[in-house]
Amino acid sequence: IMLSAKETNGQVQLQWQTIGEVNAALFVIQRSIDGVNFRDVNAKTAVGSGNNSYNYVDASAASGTNYYRIESIDKTGSFSYSRIVSVSITNYELPITVYPNPVTSKSFNLKLGDATTAKYTIRLTNPLGQTVYSTTLNHTVGNAVEIVSLGKKLSAGSYMVTATAVDGIVLKTQVFVK
């Protein structure tokens, strides 16, 4: 497998070619933020034979260095890995939206703009950096809206909402409470 990656507008475009592909079943795209611990991002069904080209766009790459590899799985279940490639994403954060903003009740809607399907830790911090609310949620669809129930109304003011995925992706936005 010949793997290449490049950054375009905060997204990573991966391309790989196979030469003499035989009995290939699946290609699993894997990402890491440390180059050691990889997580599955997506999968592509293999053509199965011949010379082929594949691509994938990772719209959920983390700020900083992202490492990628392709796990090739054949029809017998045997697998191998491509070489690791890295791409740097500078000052890029996925959009995260809170509404209504300002928040006027005990809950708000949280849209994790095209974020990876993952478990996220949601934290609200006050201007002193103190966590005033924390929960976890399982985000299952890119642009799905999650409802965050606070349990109590927060004091009026400005707060930071941070969503941190298990693979290190951090999303942030400011929210106001009336």
- The parts where pLDDT drops under 50 for at least 5 residues are none
Gyration radius, to the nearest Å?
20 Å
The number of helical elements comes to 0
- Which band does the percent of strand residues land in? over 45%
The total beta strand count reads 15
Q: Level of helix content?
A: under 10%
Q: What structural category arises from helix and sheet content?
A: mainly beta
Order of helices and strands: EEEEEEEEEEEEEEE
User: Largest sheet, described in full?
Assistant: 5 strands, antiparallel
Terminal Cα span? 55 Å
Overall mean pLDDT: 85
Describe this protein's structure.
It is a single chain. This protein has 178 residues and is mainly beta. It has no helices and 15 strands. Strands 3, 4, 6, 7 and 8 form a 5-stranded antiparallel beta sheet that branches. The chain is elongated and about 65 Å long. The termini are far apart. The mean pLDDT is 85.
Comma- or semicolon-separated keywords:
178 residues; mainly beta; 5-stranded antiparallel beta sheet; 4-stranded antiparallel beta sheet; 15 strands
